[in-house]
């Protein structure tokens, strides 16, 4: 269709060919359906519900003016200067110049998804929150993140992961802003800028990006021994998750729940992934950062698009709300401590399912604003000093990041409960509030809005006794033990997980330049575990520091280890190597799909291999780290575009197999992944634990799936 200026006098503008016939834009995916802002008199007035920002087939300006050309600026002659009067050029460039907002000061890199939470009703005896009632379904938005890296950094760096959930409940929005590690580096939020300054890149060079393996981080944590517990988790496999889908989540702080009778309990929140708790190996994580820096973001998006909706069960550890606020001698207000699950089991209270990807990354994942102070009746706070600093920070930071105090009007942040506030004006105000009297009490707007009572669902802080005391800047004595829980954590890991911790410390401290920092951290490790300390010291080539104090007896908590259980395999990814020989590939694919596993066929070239079989990866684009297990239906000879294998002299390939396939197999072996093969494929996979060969591809697949349910072939790493 050609653009026309109906009735315009004079010559028509030149027409610009369109690659397709104009048609209406694709409809937006259903977005969250937030109620309008309500005026003080109860009239619905505010911003419209999420609007379809693209309307009609024709390009327009922001004012809705149709345009006939957006590819050429208005010039004095085809080769002449551009004219200042080109209002379209100026609008387009000005808007572009202001497209970026400041990234989050921490947790800048992340990805989110929509979903639902269904309460089990099992929390009713301790909590009156409506969204926890039996069968109650509440829309949610979850954002996962790394902490240290900037918005464009890689996904699989060694870091703590954020796990922030926004529950759009009928009683107001509740945010559970947690991490995948149950403890924190510091006990008092006043030190948050210090730990973050230390972890971020060096201020002079702005390197390294998204890494803790540098001097300032280790300088800080070795000087702040309260960080030791979090550091142990940070050096463990937990800091390199296989997927956002395979992470646990923790509310970290102790919260206070209130039931219908007004009785209180103290709780810690846990998210348990139905997919299991799995991690990458450090070498895999490093390779992925180069091969696919969006690995976690892609994994979450693809799983949801494919219908493999990830799920987490929400659970609570419940403790009596005693005046001491301790449990088995553990200070529940200290965010560097856990309560082992063996002492206080995690009781399931509801299920989260992520089932819809965002329509627009910026509008949703970037603009979503979480706040630990977004609470609902039934959920109250404790006096954890880390939590109290957070209560200030999360609101404050949005003022800069989202440009003012009206960020709650952005579609992703709008409550699903009716809003009737007396907040007015300010930058980016999109509501058109009615009424004459935004204050209380008033007589001009009929007295509206009115206070609610408890029976109307008002949020009432639990009256808590505050001990008669003096103003001090100090930590309680009960926060002083910095070493027994790191020791408990290390002793709860299996030998292979302990080995990973030792190697992680050796790697990270090995990247430091300052001798004094490394030696100080070794002195800290000596207070956690003698073997851990001596093996790291040996790896660094430094003397083992002397420690003549007593190390505490600890009772290991098996729940802290990720190894030793079987997990569902749904949503995992298996590569199948094929070439002209596609025998058994269809059968293997069918068996994998039947189990909910994603099969990806890897072939010498893209496109169809047979009538019905299409390669999703080629030897050029595939790398082992993308797959949780590997199957081989063929032993393809070296293709002309293949480089010689790494262990051969240039120009004289010794192998009869394509070196890229040989590398796939070698890495799958090294990374302890299950390997299966049949036909010609069986000749190149070698043998040993976790290698399955046979004539029947379906039987091979079944054995590989059994191995996959343990995540890795751990025997190969023993
Ligand atoms: Fe924080 C973001 C989790 C301590 C200050 N934090 C942020 C996010 C998560 C956490 C998951 C990203 C939310 C999103 O996806 O938008 N933070 C935690 C946990 C902590 C913690 C589990 C300890 C238990 N944080 C913490 C302290 C302070 C902050 C002690 C400040 C005193 N956090 C912030 C922040 C951020 C933030 C600066 C940056 C962006 C944002 O809030 O919205 O306010």
UniProtKB/TrEMBL annotation:
Gene3D superfamilies named among the record's database cross-references: 1.20.1370.20, 3.40.50.880, Catalase core domain
Active-site residue numbers: 107, 179
Binding site for heme: 104, 143, 192, 390, 394, 401
GO-annotated cellular components: cytosol
Catalase core domain span: 60-448
Keywords: Heme, Hydrogen peroxide, Iron, Metal-binding, Oxidoreductase, Peroxidase
Enzyme Commission number: 1.11.1.6
UniProt entry tagged with the keyword Plastid: no
UniProt feature, compositional bias: Basic and acidic residues: 20-32
Protein purpose: Decomposes hydrogen peroxide into water and oxygen; serves to protect cells from the toxic effects of hydrogen peroxide.
Family membership: Belongs to the catalase family. HPII subfamily.
Name listed for the protein in its UniProt record: Catalase
């Amino acid at each position: 269709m050609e653009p026309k200026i109906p009735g315009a006098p004079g010559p028509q503008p030149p027409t610009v060919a369109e690659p397709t016939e104009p048609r209406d834009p694709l409809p937006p995916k259903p977005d969250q359906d937030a109620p309008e802002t309500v005026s003080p008199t109860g009239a619905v007035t505010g911003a419209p519900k999420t609007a379809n920002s693209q309307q009609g087939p024709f390009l327009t300006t922001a004012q809705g003016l149709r345009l006939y050309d957006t590819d050429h600026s208005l010039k004095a002659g085809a080769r002449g200067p551009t004219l200042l009067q080109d209002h379209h050029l100026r609008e387009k460039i000005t808007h572009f110049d202001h497209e970026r907002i400041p990234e989050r000061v921490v947790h800048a890199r992340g990805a989110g998804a929509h979903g639902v939470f269904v309460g089990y009703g099992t929390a009713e005896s301790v909590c009156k929150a409506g969204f926890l009632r039996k069968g109650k379904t509440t829309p949610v938005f979850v954002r996962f993140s790394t902490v240290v890296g900037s918005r464009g950094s890689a996904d699989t760096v060694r870091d703590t992961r954020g796990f922030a959930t926004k529950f759009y409940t009928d009683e107001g929005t509740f945010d559970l802003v947690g991490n995948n590690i149950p403890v924190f580096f510091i006990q008092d939020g006043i030190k948050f800028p210090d730990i973050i300054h230390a972890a971020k890149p060096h201020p002079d060079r702005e390197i390294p990006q998204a890494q803790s393996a540098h001097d300032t981080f280790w300088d800080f944590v070795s000087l702040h021994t309260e960080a030791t517990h979090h550091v142990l988790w940070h050096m463990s496999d937990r800091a390199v998750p296989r997927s956002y889908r395979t992470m646990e989540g923790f509310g970290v702080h102790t919260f206070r729940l209130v039931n219908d009778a007004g009785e209180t309990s103290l709780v810690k929140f846990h998210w348990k992934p139905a997919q299991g708790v799995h991690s990458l190996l450090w070498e895999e994580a490093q390779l992925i950062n180069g091969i696919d820096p969006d690995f976690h973001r892609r994994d979450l998006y693809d799983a949801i698009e494919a219908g493999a909706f990830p799920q987490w069960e929400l659970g609570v550890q419940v403790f009596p709300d005693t005046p001491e606020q301790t449990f088995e001698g553990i200070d529940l207000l200290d965010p560097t401590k856990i309560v082992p699950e063996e002492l206080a089991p995690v009781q399931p209270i509801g299920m989260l399912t992520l089932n819809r990807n965002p329509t627009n990354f910026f509008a949703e994942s970037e603009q979503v604003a979480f706040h630990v102070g977004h609470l609902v009746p039934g959920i109250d706070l404790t006096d954890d000093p880390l939590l109290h600093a957070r209560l200030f920070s999360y609101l404050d930071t949005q003022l800069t990041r989202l440009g003012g105090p009206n960020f709650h009007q952005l579609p992703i942040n709008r409550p699903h409960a009716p809003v009737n506030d007396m907040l007015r004006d300010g930058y980016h105000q999109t509501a058109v509030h009615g009424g004459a009297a935004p204050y209380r009490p008033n007589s001009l707007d009929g007295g509206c809005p009115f206070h609610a009572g408890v029976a109307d669902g008002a949020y009432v802080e639990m009256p808590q006794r505050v001990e008669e005391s003096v103003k001090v800047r100090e930590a309680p004595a009960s926060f002083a033990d910095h070493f027994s829980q790191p020791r408990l954590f290390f002793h709860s890991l299996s030998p292979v997980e302990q080995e990973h911790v030792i190697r992680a410390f050796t790697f990270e401290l090995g990247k430091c330049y300052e001798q004094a920092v490394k030696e100080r951290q070794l002195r800290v490790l000596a207070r956690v575990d003698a073997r851990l300390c001596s093996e790291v010291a040996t790896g660094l080539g430094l003397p083992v520091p002397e420690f003549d104090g007593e190390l505490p007896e600890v009772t290991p908590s098996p729940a802290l280890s990720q190894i030793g259980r079987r997990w569902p395999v749904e949503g995992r990814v298996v590569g199948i190597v094929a070439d002209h020989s596609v025998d058994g590939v269809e059968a293997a694919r069918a068996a994998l799909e039947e189990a909910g596993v994603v099969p990806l066929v890897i072939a010498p070239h893209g496109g169809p291999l047979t009538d019905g079989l299409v390669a999703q990866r080629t030897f050029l684009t595939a790398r082992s780290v993308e797959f949780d297990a590997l199957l081989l239906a063929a032993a393809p000879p070296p293709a002309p575009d293949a480089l010689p294998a790494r262990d051969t002299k240039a120009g004289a390939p010794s192998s009869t197999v394509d070196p890229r396939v040989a590398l796939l197999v070698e890495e799958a072996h090294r990374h302890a992944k299950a390997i299966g093969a049949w036909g010609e494929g069986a000749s190149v996979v070698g043998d040993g634990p976790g290698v399955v060969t046979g004539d029947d591809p379906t039987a091979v697949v079944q054995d590989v799936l059994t191995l996959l349910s343990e995540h890795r072939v751990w025997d190969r790493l023993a």
